[in-house]
């Protein structure tokens, strides 16, 4: 049986190209698009880990590039989840979140879905907590960033950077991860 070639609508190509450009611009220009009024974490959004001393700031639902630039604006980083306790703490403090952005992204030149993953904050690249079957670039989407998923018990999923239904939680690792 002969398969018909995959048809991609021009609007899909434009959307994918726009998402890739958003990610690349966020990674190369951390201050781009930062709201001028956002200079520190609102007090009610701040919480901390009693284990590591790490402080977290919940900035609500945003795209990956918006989360990155807003975390940088308040001198925080996108989170590096080194322990299950980190994910549990986030979900217990951000009760409306199904997914939370991590600072984990795939190098734009990577051709395999499971290669080229790095941390924006310089966390060890050997750290891994992918949910079963992930990363997968589901339905051939351009899924180049990772979220931590409540449904997967704190496991990671690869998703598109343009998603607007993912919570942005930033971390201040000035006291270090224990």
Automatic annotation (TrEMBL):
Domain of life of the native organism: Eukaryota
Matching InterPro entries: C-type_lectin-like (IPR001304), C-type_lectin-like/link_sf (IPR016186), CTDL_fold (IPR016187)
Domain C-type lectin residue range list: 61-158
Gene3D superfamilies: Mannose-Binding Protein A, subunit A
Protein name: C-type lectin domain-containing protein
Organism: Hemiselmis tepida
Lineage of source species: Eukaryota, Cryptophyceae, Cryptomonadales, Hemiselmidaceae, Hemiselmis
